[in-house]
Amino acid sequence: xxxxxxxxxxxxxxxxxxxxxxxxxxxxxxxxxxxxxxxxxxxxxxxxxxxxxxxxxxxxxxxxxxxxxxxxxxxxxxxxxxxxxxxxxxxxxxxxxxxxxxxxxxxxxxxxxxxxxxxxxxxxxxxxxxxxxxxxxxxxxxxxxxxxxxxxxxxxxxxxxxxxxxxxxxxxxxxxxxxxxxxxxxxxxxxxxxxxxxxxxxxxxxxxxxxxxxxxxxxxxxxxxxxxxxxxxxxxxxxxxxxxxxxxxxxxxxxxxxxxxxxxxxxxxxxxxxxxxxxxxxxxxxxxxxxxxxxxxxxxxxxxxxxxxxxxxxxxxxxxxxxxxxxxxxxxxxxxxxxxxxxxxxxxxxxxxxxxxxxxxxxxxxxxxxxxxxxxxxxxxxxxxxxxxxxxxxxxxxxxxxxxxxxxxxxxxxxxxxxxxxxxxxxxxxxxxxxxxxxxxxxxxxxxxxxxxxxx
Length: 456
Known about the structure:
The protein is mainly alpha-helical. It is 68% helix and 0% strand. It contains 24 helices and no strands. It has helices spanning 24-34, 38-50, 54-66, 75-87, 91-103, 112-124, 128-139, 148-160, 166-176, 185-197, 201-212, 221-233, 238-249, 258-270, 274-285, 295-307, 311-323, 331-343, 347-359, 367-379, 383-393, 403-416, 420-434, 439-455. The longest helix is centred in the C-terminal third of the chain and has 17 residues, at 439-455. The two termini are 26 Å apart.
């Protein structure tokens, strides 16, 4: 189960309204909008927008974008209003229009160059939302290799202007590290605290995680739980998964309580959280009597998780099809799901797909294809993939054959394996495979394994 998969990059898609309030009628429209009285806001803002007020055009664009205040969703009108507002110099509209081209919204194609130009204009005008979103654009690699100094600077500037997502995004950078940016748990916690101070639900979940697992500072389970609950109350669906996992595994002062865990997973599922689907499915398919298995529902939950893009769900669902759990055996579907996950660089899926190719499940036997997949998995640090590659390469009855390379990969797997029992098993396997080599070949295999360990 993933403990905190939602630390993955969150797209802070804040739609900006902020502007100098130049007219009382706009003040009233903005107050009505902020209060959720969208019908009143539409009534007040429409004549201003029709008269060419830039801030009003942006607000009306938002309302057509979202279908608020009795207005129908109208992408064409929303795009026109954002464009005219941006052309009139309103930075909030520049940010909103940049997002359109950044993500391909309102029927438009992604246009990275146009989005960049709009973000940069909005940043020049002081838009903290554009600072955050342009940093995200760089972090996504849409402008080439990310410039982490620039990204961190933009997030920090936006965070200092109290943009709701920027501090959480900074915390994420320092929590996980990036190329050239080492992990800094203490700094990650500081930025998470900053994000909580401006009401970021994602920041609350992130800080809760760090408090739960003593990352960047001491453990504080009561506050972690309180933050998860606060994030949930603010509408963060993923917070239900955090609460569920707290009860699923327990923590200091919080005993394991599967009933509470299931209740929170169900809340997350109802709110559309992908990890709640996957983690409840795990409970319903693990054979543990603490939660009665329901393989049919587990399969359905994994299917939903897969449809939501969750690779763990894709791989778990492949096993149910492979083994005929919760439905009939379907090797073709298992192979399709593993191929999908392998294409997304899931090393476990590469290994398992290699097994299917080697055994001819869901398609013809393909030993060379299996060896290729095992090698890719091994290069990613998957020790079982390295073991499987070793056995293929040392099998002189099949192709490809390279016993020295095979024993080298076997030694690699033993050195990379963290579990002591598994490591001992791998070492015994390597000794058996090495018996078929000459002394010179065994020495060559040891030397080659050192090269592999230095490379991968």
